[in-house]
């Protein structure tokens, strides 16, 4: 299938995917029947918007045998989400699903300039989590040597970086930042062969990118994916670092208003909704990812035929409303990137004051320099439209994690 730029979906590919879903999944068949949709009526790209939305709860709460669109005998593997936002979501994979995922991930490595002769240190979770399997399968398909260190164990990570001469690091941005700080503290930069970081599984900003790249002397690439959509490897930045290319030959991306669920035009922030075109075991029909971003209208200067979404601004279930104003972690990232002396890490705590009004307390890692506090408070208020209670803490004091780092805590009673 040939990839094409733009946001229009191939109607025949859509119809074939819905046909497979309808024939194989009792859950999706009932959902389509309830919406009055027959696969045979899908003849045009516009028919996509007639299809019902599906959610994480649909997959999580439906028995595997009822959601899966192939017989269980055809299922080769299962993976699950990390469970950071609730109970784990289990997804099934056929051998063809695994092959397609491996090919997509190898494509990601190619976009990051990784291939034969590279040594990829895979410092992400293995087992039920998709990351380790995806990073390793893609690396091996790309012709690279895989160094499967897994998450955590910083002593092992530093040892393998040195002794194996790893040229590529695959990790969450949080863990890459921790390793970068350790490398700097121990003066190991000259002992490393690293040149590339492929980082994902969480939203991370330009200040974090700068901190990682400067300490490790590498170029980083933001990789996209989620368990329901195979896993990491469903998209990646190219060398222009202006948006994430998504593999439109395997799935289609819509951006919708998370409140009205109506499509929004390119350049407008909204929620990512995906419909798979080639996924067999756990197909997705207008799946609400909760990821917030926007579509690019124009082709990428790199010449790629694949459309782009912006790097994630957050999640629709991650954003909070404070005194009628939407607060997103990405807003803080943008400000931190503008203020000299700020680190990349922060925590936002939302609660209620003695007068019952919403308050936001923000802890920010920063250097001790005159005027930084006043500049930061002013820029935050200008950018977000809220006055925040800001506390500056020393660099490298907020928690780091080998998985996803939580940065927003809502303590209000709902």
| Protein structure class | alpha/beta
CATH superfamily of the largest domain: ANL, N-terminal domain
Q: In CATH, what is the class of the largest domain?
A: Alpha Beta
Instruction: Name the shape in a single word.
Output: globular
Poorly predicted runs are 1-6
Average pLDDT confidence is 90
Count of extended strands: 20
**What strand order characterises the main sheet?**
4-3-5-6-7-8-9-13
Head-to-tail CA distance between termini: 47 Å
Q: Please compute the radius of gyration using only Cα atoms.
A: 22 Å
How many domain modules?
3
Largest sheet: 8 strands, mixed
Binned, the helix content reads 25-40%
Domain AMP-dependent ligase C-terminal: 324-412
Pathway: Aromatic compound metabolism; phenylacetate degradation
Domain AMP-dependent synthetase/ligase: 71-275
GO molecular function: nucleotide binding; phenylacetate-CoA ligase activity
Short description:
With 414 residues, this protein is of the alpha/beta class. It has helices spanning 11-24, 26-34, 56-61, 64-67, 95-111, 130-141, 154-163, 173-185, 206-216, 329-338, 372-384, and strands at 77-80, 90-93, 119-122, 145-147, 168-172, 196-200, 219-226, 231-237, 244-246, 251-256, 270-276, 287-293, 308-309, 314-315, 320-322, 325-327, 342-352, 358-366, 389-393, 408-410.
What does this structure look like?
The structure is a single chain. With 414 residues, the chain is of the alpha/beta class. The protein folds into 3 domains: 11-93 and 238-315, 3-Layer(aba) Sandwich (Rossmann fold); 100-223, Rossmann fold; 320-328 and 337-410, 2-Layer Sandwich (GMP Synthetase, Chain A, domain 3), CATH 3.30.300.30. 29% of the residues lie in helices and 24% in strands. The chain is built from 11 helices and 20 strands. The chain has helices spanning 11-24, 26-34, 56-61, 64-67, 95-111, 130-141, 154-163, 173-185, 206-216, 329-338, 372-384, and strands at 77-80, 90-93, 119-122, 145-147, 168-172, 196-200, 219-226, 231-237, 244-246, 251-256, 270-276, 287-293, 308-309, 314-315, 320-322, 325-327, 342-352, 358-366, 389-393, 408-410. Strands 4-3-5-6-7-8-9-13 form an 8-stranded mixed beta sheet, sandwiched between helices. It has a 4-stranded antiparallel beta sheet with strand order 10-11-12-14, with no helix packed on it. Strands 19-18-17-20 form a 4-stranded mixed beta sheet. Helix 1 (11-24) packs across helix 2 (26-34). It is globular and about 70 Å long. The chain starts with 10 loop residues before the first helix and ends with a strand. 46% of the residues are buried. Residues 1-6 have low confidence and may be disordered.
